[in-house]
Design goal:
Keywords: Membrane, Transmembrane, Transmembrane helix. The protein is mainly alpha-helical and 111 residues long. The protein has one domain (2-110). The protein contains four helices and no strands. The chain is elongated.
C-alpha cells in the first residue's frame, strides 16, 4: 500500500493541478477561488503521501479522507468532482489489491 498509495496521491495532485485551466476557461469559475482550492488540495495530497508511508490502516484512512475532501471541493469547483470520484474508485481498487499482496506475502513467509 505504501508505494501504490503514494503513487495514486502523487498523480492525483498532478491531475488536480491540470484542472485549473479547465475550471477557469471552460466553467468560468473565479480565478482566485480555483487557484486557492486547487493549491490547497495539491498540498493535501502531497502531505498525505507522508501519512501513507507509516501503516496500512493509517494509509487507508488518510487516502479516504483525501478523496472525500476532493469530492467535496468538487461541488465548489465543478471540474474537481470527476477526478475525485475516479481516484476514489482507484483508491478502493488499491486497497483490495494491497490486501491480496499482503496475504500472499504472509503465505510465502510461512513456507
Amino acid at each position: 500500500m505504501k508505494v501504490m498509495g503514494s503513487a495514486i496521491l502523487f498523480f492525483e495532485a498532478i491531475v488536480i493541478g491540470l484542472s485549473i485551466p479547465i475550471s477557469i476557461v471552460v466553467y468560468g469559475v473565479d480565478k482566485s477561488t480555483t487557484l486557492w482550492v486547487t493549491f490547497l488540495l495539491m498540498v493535501l495530497c502531497i502531505v498525505a503521501i507522508g501519512g501513507v508511508r507509516h501503516d496500512r490502516r493509517g494509509a487507508i484512512t488518510t487516502g479516504i479522507v483525501v478523496q472525500l475532501i476532493i469530492i467535496g471541493a468538487g461541488f465548489a469547483v465543478r471540474p474537481m468532482l470527476f477526478p475525485g470520484v475516479l481516484f476514489l474508485l482507484i483508491w478502493a481498487l488499491a486497497i483490495a489489491l494491497s490486501k491480496k499482496v499482503d496475504e500472499a506475502k504472509a503465505a510465502r513467509e510461512t513456507l
